[in-house]
Amino acid sequence: MSGLQKKETPEAVFWWDPTRSPEPEEHHFQPAWWQQQDRVMGSSKGRNIAWFVEGEQGAMVLRHYYRGGLVGKILHDQFWLEPVEKSRAMREFQLLQWMADEGLPVPRPCAARYARSGLIYRADLLIEMIPNSRDIFRIMTDQGPLEAEIWQKVGAAVREMHRHGVYHSDLNCHNIMLDSDEKVWLIDFDKCERREPGEWQQANCERLLRSLRKELDKNEKFGWQEAQWDDFLAGYQQS
């Protein structure tokens, strides 16, 4: 696995991959600082905002961790204090690093922060930005249905992830990217983990299918066609 550097200050714990990021400081996890440096390249306004920033060693995505569900409406970005090694940021960082080292199509993590405050902590993650990429939700909304070959590539990528025993807790059409070479990338591995083979693999695929149907119900311009699931399965089963 790639090297991992770690440092601790009275306010926070930082860790980083020195091949991807210089030693991080507090301001590296503050969007306002990147804006002041005129190094913000854009942002993604999904359920939670992510910032695209120009780092010293390449473009990165800055993401702050938020809670979901009803608890998230109250605590927002506050998590009950736990060891750094068990925090969501550290677990996602290490999983991404392992997956990238295994050759899986995921972005490499660059740096992360775990900031303590009383009985809670907040966390942030910097990962490399996949150049010239868009998620398949946007592509299918703007351009219509994907070609069968693309769906076969998506199926093969998901199967390879499963073959390595990686469970994706939120596999959906927003977390699958295509770059300008039509290579498939998988993103957003918060709350994901490695597991032994089991029924979760089929459930993971079914979750993706539900997300496609859900988006079609909400938006008639979304280019999903039910018959394309056969193309996904062909790629999944042949990989």
Write a structural description.
With 239 residues, the protein is α+β, with helices and mostly antiparallel strands. The protein folds into two domains: 5-128, Phosphorylase Kinase, domain 1 (2-Layer Sandwich); 134-238, Orthogonal Bundle (Transferase(Phosphotransferase), domain 1), CATH 1.10.510. The chain has helices spanning 31-36, 69-75, 88-101, 136-143, 148-163, 200-218, 228-238; strands at residues 5-8, 12-16, 40-45, 49-55, 58-64, 79-80, 109-117, 120-128, 134-135, 166-167, 176-178, 184-186, 193-194. The strands form three sheets. Strands 1, 2, 3, 4, 5, 6, 7 and 8 form an eight-stranded antiparallel β-sheet that branches. A three-stranded antiparallel β-sheet has the order 9-11-12. Strands 10-13 form a two-stranded antiparallel sheet. A hairpin with a 2-residue loop joins strand 4 (49-55) and strand 5. The protein is globular and about 55 Å long.
Q: Which features would summarize this protein structure in a list?
A:
single chain, alpha+beta, Phosphorylase Kinase, domain 1, Transferase(Phosphotransferase), domain 1, 2 domains, 26% strand, globular
Kindly summarize this structure in a few lines.
By secondary structure, the protein is α+β, with helices and mostly antiparallel strands. The protein has helices at residues 31-36, 69-75, 88-101, 136-143, 148-163, 200-218, 228-238, and strands spanning 5-8, 12-16, 40-45, 49-55, 58-64, 79-80, 109-117, 120-128, 134-135, 166-167, 176-178, 184-186, 193-194.
Helix-strand blueprint:
Layout: E1 5-8, E2 12-16, H1 31-36, E3 40-45, E4 49-55, E5 58-64, H2 69-75, E6 79-80, H3 88-101, E7 109-117, E8 120-128, E9 134-135, H4 136-143, H5 148-163, E10 166-167, E11 176-178, E12 184-186, E13 193-194, H6 200-218, H7 228-238
Antiparallel strand pairs: 1-2, 2-7, 3-4, 4-5, 5-8, 6-8, 7-8, 9-11, 10-13, 11-12
Helix pairs in contact: 5-7
